[in-house]
Amino acid sequence: MKRITLTLAIIAFGCAIAVAQKKVPDVHNTFNEHKYRRTEIILPQVKGYNCYKADFHVHTIYSDGELTPRQRVREAWYDGLDILALTDHLEARNYEKFMLKALAPHNPGGKAHKYYHAGSVRLMEDGTDPGIRSDHNAAFNEAMQHLKKEGYPILLIKGSEISRAPQTQGHFNALFIKDIPAIYNIDTKETFRNVHKQGGIVIHNHPAYRRNTTEKSEWQAEAYKEGLIDGVEIVNGSAFYPKMIRRAVEENLVMIGATDTHRPTSGQYKDLGFFRTMTIVLAKECTEKAVKDALLKRRTLAYSGGELMGEEKWLVEFANAAVDCRLVSENGGKKNDSHIYSLTNNTSITIRLRRGKTIYELEPFRTTTVSYGKNKNGEYGRPTFTIENMWHIDYQHPKVVFEIDK
Ligand SMILES: [Zn+2]
Ligand SMILES: [Zn+2]
C-alpha cells in the first residue's frame, strides 16, 4: 500500500513538472484583427445589368466629417460598397481651423493663420472672396493611395459638395470631376457650368434641407430650367423625399440615394440591422464610364432602411430578378385544385409583398409558397403582389406579376 502511494505521488509530481514546463506564449491573439470582414450584399442581375452598390455623398475630415479618407475607403469596403464618392464641402473645411490652431506655436510669432471659408459663405474682412486656399484634391488622392495599397476593388469617384445658402440655393454634389478647386466660382451657376466643362454631373442634395419644403426656390427653378442640374437625391440618410421621384421622372434626372455621412456608418446603419443608404447602379461594368453612363440614362434605384425607391419600371424588374418564382404544384391545396408557387428571394434585401390583407415577408435566401385557386372565370390566379417596401411616383407601391422561372 505504501509503495502504491509512493508511486502515485511520483506520477503526480511528474505531471506537475509537465504542466509547469508547458510553453507560455508572450502574446495570445484572441482573433485575427487584420482579417477583412466585408459584408457581401448580394443583388440580382437586372435585364443584363449588374447591380452595383454606391454611396455618392460622404464627408471626411477634409471638410466637416469625422473620419479620414482612408477610413472612409475601408468602411465602404466593410459595408459592401462597389462605388464611393468623397464629397467634401467646396467652401468650408472646418478641420483646417483646428489644424491651423495646433500649428500656431510653430509659426513665427506663435499666431494661427487666419482661416476663411471660400466664397459666399463668408467673405474676407475687406469683402473680397478668399477663394480656394488649400488642396481640395487631397482627400481623393489619399483615398486612392489607400485603395491601391489595400487592394480594395472600389471605384472611387472624385466629387465635391457645393454648399450655398440653403433657403435660396442649396447644396449640390459635383461628381465625376477632374480637378476640384477648378470648379470653384463664387457664382453657383458658374460653378455648375465648370462641373459640366470637366465632364462632371450635378446632383441636387437633400432638397428639403433648412427649407421644410422640397418645392423649388426661384433660383433653383432657373438652374433646373437652364439644365444645370442632372440629378436629385430622393434619399439622404433616412430622409426619403417622395415628391422628388415625380421631378426626376418629368425632368429626366437621375435618382440618388446617399448617406451624406459625417460620422462612422457602423452606429448609424449596421447596428440597426440594415445596410447603409445607397444608390443601386444598373451598369454593365464597374468603370467610371459605365457608371456615369448608367446615371445619365437614369438606371438607378435608391435603398434606405430596408426600403427601395425609384422608377416603377426598374423596381418591378429588380423584384422580378430578385425572386425566383416556380409553379411547384398544379393540384395542391386542401381540395387538390390550386396552383402552388414557390417564391425564393435570392438577394440580401428583404422584399415585403402584400396580397389582399396578407403580407409575405420574403427574407433573404428563403423560400415561401403561395397558392392560387380558380377565379369566377375558371382561370387560375397568377402570383401578383403589391411590393410594400418599394416606392415609386407619388408615394405609390409598385405591383408585380412574377414571371415564372423554369
Ligand atoms: Zn449638404
Ligand atoms: Zn453633405
Give a description of the structure.
- The termini are far apart.
- This protein is of the alpha+beta class.
- The protein is built from ten helices and 19 strands.
- The chain has two domains: 261 residues, TIM Barrel; 79 residues, no CATH class.
- Bound molecules: zinc ion (ZN) (2 copies).
- One zinc ion binds next to loops.
What is the secondary structure topology, with strand pairs?
Layout: H1 2-21, E1 50-58, H2 69-78, E2 83-86, H3 94-103, H4 138-150, E3 155-163, E4 171-175, H5 188-197, E5 201-204, H6 218-225, E6 231-236, E7 239-240, H7 243-251, E8 254-258, H8 265-268, E9 278-283, H9 288-296, E10 300-304, E11 307-310, H10 312-322, E12 323-332, E13 338-345, E14 351-355, E15 358-362, E16 367-372, E17 384-387, E18 390-391, E19 399-401
Parallel strand pairs: 1-2, 2-3, 5-6, 6-8, 11-18
Antiparallel strand pairs: 1-9, 3-4, 4-5, 6-7, 9-10, 10-11, 12-13, 13-16, 14-15, 14-17, 17-19
Helix pairs in contact: 2-4
